[in-house]
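Researcher: I've been going back and forth with a colleague about how Argininosuccinate lyase might be arranged in three dimensions. Neither of us has a model we trust, so I'd like an independent prediction. The organism is Microbulbifer flavimaris, in case that matters for your notes. Sequence below.
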Amino acid sequence: MSNKKDPASETLKTDANPAAKLWGGRFSEATDTFVERFTASVMFDQRMALEDIQGSLAHAQMLSEVGVLTADEFRQIEGGLKDIAGEIQAGEFPWSVALEDVHMNIEARLTDRIGATGKKLHTGRSRNDQVATDIRLWLRNRIDAIGSELTRLQTGLVDLAEREAETIMPGFTHLQSAQPVTFGHHLLAWNEMLTRDYERLMDCRKRVNRSPLGAAALAGTSYPIDRARTAELLGFDAPTENSLDSVSDRDFAIEFCAFAALLLTHLSRASEELVLWTSSQFDFIDLPDRFCTGSSIMPQKKNPDVPELVRGKTGRVNGHLIALLTLMKSQPLAYNKDNQEDKEPLFDAADTALDCLRAFADMVPALKAKKENMLAAAARGFSTATDLADYLVRKGVAFRDAHEIVGNSVAFAIEKDCDLADLSLEELQKFSDVIGDDVFEVLTLEGSVAARDHVGGTAPAQVRAACARAKELITAR
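Model: Here is an independent structure prediction for Argininosuccinate lyase. You can compare it with whatever you and your colleague have in mind.
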């Protein structure tokens, strides 16, 4: 049996004395030891410690400005909280399970350091509005970090698309060769998904950036607080409007997780393509070795672990969204202990989204296109068949008739084991006498992509123009 101690047991202290609880006055017996651990959240909510201190500093400053605290009391509280922040950043803070959560741990430590004045900090607020404020502050910081990584990824992606504006590859439907496109055009499709993700993230930030501080337990407070002032001090756009709603809803966290689920879904689709393209069956791209691993038994293997892992983590984030939706669906107003379960899914969804974006932002600019392989693949599968049909329509053939003519031509080419472009003019004219020498201009891959010369099309000139527009949008953020 191992004698190794759980590190948490050394850093998280317990205390069975009911009088040690900040709310213990009404209780006559100690909390059951298991219940104490079961109901505590300090194991995970301590990561909001600096946001908790930030909120407390704003609250204390406001209380001093409205005369609830004296200037000296505020200075004591301010100095004590800043010292505690230093302890936390240095890893020297004595976290205690007995004090349940990050808020009570910090408040108790403040009282230890500055005495009875520390007990005045909680005047005019509750842990209900305190935790709602902390989560919003924490999430706002995370949103900003995720937005920066999204921008970095899109910058690298658009740069790569511009470099590959003329690289021809097969476009697929049903994972079968459909029409030729350029690699740059395909990459810009990824960028469009990420652009919408960024817009959703910034839209979510607007609703996160409201201050619930001052809503207190559920009904507000009788103290002469100034909620607009604390909102201003904390960088919120405004206070929330209703005290009941302020402390009880977590729709902003659900909205963020919905964003994260969509983001990871988009990254997962890109990951799936990267996995396919690096396989020997496709062999379209090369991933640098630093983003891959090998096999313990097969020395020839180079596994695309980064995109595979991003693809796998998508299910995890989707699960967090469902967890939060389920958490909220049956809660009556106002705050309920259920909401303690909001943090771990939110924290992990944010961490996972940020990590996946960092991995992609590092990896995507380093992709190497195997242009010859892409071009050869585009030449297979009759990807210019639609161009032949369009050619016939321009010659006056009804589209449905053109469709049949091309279908017959493809069947003939399959029998000959060649592509449409390899058929002779005489062979093509067996299916329609309107076909002339100029048909081979549309049957080339280069001619096919160049013909899609409109906004949103795959023509190299349009890809470069789309890259320029994308760069303008990114720069304007």
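Researcher: What would you highlight for our discussion?
Model: I'd start with this: Residues 105 and 227 are 25 Å apart (CA to CA). After that, consider the following. The two ends are 57 Å apart (CA to CA).
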